[in-house]
Amino acid sequence: MTNHWIDIRNSDCILIMGSNAAENHPISMKWVGNAKNKGATIINVDPRFTRTSSKADIYTAERSGTDIAFLGGMMNYILSKDKYHKEYAANYTNVSFILGPKYDFKDGLFSGYDPKKKKYDKSFWAFEKDANGVPKRDLTLKDPRCVFQLMKKFYSRYTTKTVSAITGTPEADLKKIYETYAATGAVDKTGTIMYAMGWTQHTVGVQNIRMMAMIQLMLGNMGRPGGGVNALRGESNVQGSTDHCLLFHIWPGYLGTPKASLVTLADYNAKNTPKTNDPLSANWWQNKPKYMASFLKAMFGEAATKENDFGYSWMPKIDDGVTYSWLDIFDEMYKGNFKGFFAWGQNPACSGANSNKTRQALAKLDWMVNVNIFDNETASFWKGPGMNPDEIKTEVFFLPCHTSVEKEGSITNSGRWMQWRYAAAKPPRGPKGDGDIMVELFEKVRELYEADGKFTEPIKNFRWDYVKDGKYDPHAIAKLINGYFEQDTTVKGKSFKKGTLVPSFAFLLDDGSTSSGNWLYCQSYTEKGNMAARREKKDPTGMGLYPEWSWCWPVNRRIIYNRASVDLNGKPWSPNKNILEYKDGKWVGDVPDGGWPPMSDKEKTKRPFIMKPDGVGSVFGPGRVDGPFPEHYEPLECPVPKNLMSSQRMNPVAPVYGTAADEHYSCDPRFPFVGTTYRVTEHWQTGILTRWQPWLLETQPQLFVEMSNELAKLKGIKNGDMCKVSSARGKVEAVAMVTGRFRPFTIQGLTVHQVGLPWCFGWVYPKDGGDSANLLTPSTGDPNTRIPETKAFMVNVEKLGKRRA
Amino acid sequence: MAGKFFLIDTTRCTACRGCQIACKQWNELPADKTKQYGSYQNPLDLNGNTYRLVRFAEYPSKKNSMAWYFFSDACRHCLAPPCKKKADQILKDAIVVNDYGAVIYTEKTKDLEKASKVIKQACPWSVPNWSKDQKQMVKCTMCNERVDAGLLPACVKACPTGALNFGEEADIKKLTKERLAEAKKKFGDKAHIEDEKDVRALFLIVDDFIKYKPMEL
Amino acid sequence: MALTRREFLKWSGTAGAAAAAMCLGFDLRPVKLYAADLKILKAKETTTICPYCAVGCGIIVHTKKSGKLLNTEGDPDHPINEGALCAKGAGLYQMTVNKNRKRFPLYRAPESDEWEEIEWEDAIQKIAEKIKETRDATFTEKNAKGEVVNRTTGIAHVGSAALDNEECWLLQGIMRALGLVYIEHQARI
């Protein structure tokens, strides 16, 4: 989230779209309700009427996979009716930038597309630069080649008539929602978006979110209380695990994983450190070399020196142009290309798209280690439905671990708040803490490598001074993540002794004198103490920031990009939206997003979007692999023969996997209905933890499929009947929940039915609960993130005889 | 009169079922084996193991296409409880009312197994149940041991949206007046408090009661 | 019985002097045969954060001195949830006190149709041996282009968004020190 949970109460209009917040982030409704009681309007858009919809002031339905069309229409409304915040957009975004002559868009394709490689050459989307290498701008926004004019033209194609024919949403509803939300373009109003997997799990996932970010920039909502772009993350510490980069493409603190072509650290820094010639751009990522060096010092400690490039070559590199993501892992595994696999605190046999492919892939491994609290479909895959144990050679180790109340450490919520929690209950004899398992395992591996083995340097040199007597110590690791001065150092005129904790990332250096496991978390554990453990309830601004409750990144800034919440003189755009103000030569309120004076001080100021090389918000986004403006494409499997917007039916650069387990069909009479997957409050993800809890299982005991009265009538299905739901990849048995909360859509004049299933069940337990809805979903995904398209695919639904649950 | 009151403002409920589970957790009640019969509501009814149940009922609506009513159902803690009246005819003070109005089924109800059906029928909402595990009659206790210690009932504490409220009579009645006015503005004149004069658990609903607890599930 | 100031204030709330006195050991109320004892009366209180969604609600865990889990409920001081919890958070007790929790490491041999219990030491030893064996068999110093990559593509890892920050950092460090590049988790799905 750019903002945070409590800040939602400061909003005048809350759009809940691509999220079912009441069911999946239930306590967030405390703050949604708080805003509503103060007069805010709650808008909810969802293919199905959910528990969230029941509390919305305005609800409407859209077909799964059509969010860009919906929001494109909103942008069209905002631009054509002049609802945007002109001063904000002109000064704080790139709408004034002029595009170079190579940029173009025609019939669903941007310029620079290579149909053979299915890839774009992004250099075609570059801005015109002046003699100093700074993007040219037209602050009047009139130049026909400026972003604003090109965008206006682009979204003029998204008329309410066209949008309605794509989404199935009535034009009257579209108009009402556009008008209501666009009203937050007024200075004294802010609107926010709460979104989640409903937007990310598509082949156009990233562009869904970009579309909303662009709307928020145009309306002047970014960086302001009750505004921002609020991603509702899915897991208790998925924010932390993402920050610490258990992902192939980034190292802790979002440092891009070095590609093999970058031989030295200097090569890496040269290629990956953004540059700007604009003296008003802070370009904060110019500090990347400091963060890289500090990370490597955290990885290899004293062994990392300038001479050995801080151990840069000891770290594994990825090949240029190759991805190693989740979908790639199971594709390679299916082809038999892995020997060993760790599924640590995860249940891929149910959570990944295309469960049949995943489960068959697991059977090709030599060995697998599963660390978890309960038995699950991944650990026990070899005795699952359709599996013949006699033919499966995989050795499997199941390691039981502690629950969250049995160990100490921190987790980071969606609002970036790092919160410390303590061991409360004595664990039963047997299971171990995950941290202890990691320490024991690595010490054993290192012991084995003392004798011999391939390339032992990184194993021998992996920093281990935070482990004493073989014990895992969360405080010691938290301190390393914050970082130390590794030698006596003087920086910014202050002197620090070796072994002192670094006070913030502003003090990190690139010469090996500092370490920091994750520069973003630098300031979380300092000489002042464990900032994440704070429990002070002071709220000096009265806007719900609670600056001394826990600690948030970066540097405890509660609302990021907050210098966009003030005008060029440093005064809040509106006095009722004050979380930051420049008074008597200093910033008062939230931690300012850079301490430079307001933009009226043309000498000393910096533009507010400090993480971007140009210092402004990207309305035009030249960095995405599938285009600088979001464009509607249909999902991989879709119910209509053509895309109304262009002849590009689906995202032209989306990855599509091609094994025998990856069949997919569109407009196939065998799979005539749109299918989607979602969650329920009472279960958690694959249900691996919650299905075993009787109180929760009692409330949601078995897999169900929600369908409209009309579809039920068509297929002779009654509420409570047992049904088979099938796709090109698999099938599940589910109890029919016939409901008016799904209605048929009219798409391009055709009746299109949609159904949905929760994916919280699995064959391990309970025996009559049903299996994973991911048996139906396709392994294709977003080309930027490779998040699978589990929200829109095609299925069939049939009654299973006279059986009931 | 005085004593404690609940206000259950169904217009704020999101059916997160925090109340249903918090009650189970606090009272250490077991779960039953249930089936999916085509609804989010489970178990089907209040029973020996479930003292608070969120009921789900949906209807087409002109506004927003559907209305989905959530009703956090439990004992009303009546001012003149009919269950007590019936039980006293058989075994006096097996059911008692404490000094702030909590209607409590004491251990003495272990001798009322045979009468449990008629006692259940005496209740307009069929709240009382016989518990096979505890071998006595059971229902919501108003978490009286928590209230005695100055804590909120478990269900009320769990509620994130202000649907469940609890406190002294004067405070709850004031809150009820405010919320009812808001509800009438938003939902129309059908908004009302059920059995306002007879119960300590004031339910604010916006439609006929039968719509919240339909006979056919 | 020593009470923290917070406990005292909490318990002396609306119930007033009677409850407060009760906490201090004096029972001023008339004897109530039917009033249940407050099971968390003398419990230790520890703060934690809910392990489910990313709202990050505060939870108070009540335990006996022995560490036995008694009760879990919302932390009224936490500014985000203010004591409230949804169904999952409210039932947190049952994730920990659950007869279906696996207690000991299990091993499934090739072509076997059942689990066998093994000792922790055994499991760690065997897994470490497998890691070394596979890493050594699949380690690549240079890729097809002759670029130094120092990695193994024979082992993949997924997990976990359910781990603490400190565990996540350690795990990414270990996996990268071992040379893995196929490292993923819930954030990718």
Protein model, in words:
The complex is a heterotrimer of chains A (805), B (217) and C (189). Helix content of chain A is 22%, strand content 16%. Chain A contains 20 helices and 31 strands. The model of chain A has no long low-confidence stretch (mean pLDDT 97). With 217 residues, chain B is α+β, with helices and mostly antiparallel strands. Chain B is built from seven helices and ten strands. In chain B, the strands form four sheets. A four-stranded mixed beta sheet of chain B has the order 8-1-10-9. The model of chain B has no long low-confidence stretch (mean pLDDT 96). In chain C, a hairpin with an 8-residue loop joins strand 1 and strand 2 (58-63). The chains are: A alpha/beta (805), B alpha+beta (217), C alpha+beta (189). The interface between A and C is large, with 166 and 117 residues.
In short:
The complex is a heterotrimer of chains A (805), B (217) and C (189). Chain A is of the alpha/beta class.
Which geometry of chain A do the CA atoms define?
Answer: globular
The total of beta strands of chain C comes to 9
Q: Assembly type of the shown chains?
A: heterotrimer
Order of helices and strands of chain C: HHEEEHHEEHEEEHE
Percent strand of chain C: 15-25%
Helix content of chain C: 25-40%
What radius of gyration of chain A results from the CA coordinates? 26 Å
Distance between the termini of chain C: 51 Å
State the low-pLDDT regions of chain C, or none.
Answer: 1-32
- Percent strand of chain A equals 15-25%
For the largest interface in this structure, which chains are involved and how many residues does each contribute?
Answer: A-C, 166 and 117 residues
Gyration radius of chain C (Cα, Å) is: 25 Å
Largest sheet of chain A: 6 strands, mixed
Structural class of chain C: alpha+beta
Unreliable sequence segments of chain A:
none
Number of helix segments of chain A?
Answer: 20
In round numbers, the mean pLDDT of chain A is 97
Main traits of this protein?
heterotrimer; B: 217 residues; four-stranded mixed β-sheet; two-stranded antiparallel sheet; 27% helix; 21% strand; C: 189 residues; three-stranded antiparallel β-sheet; two-stranded antiparallel ribbon; 6 helices; disordered N terminus
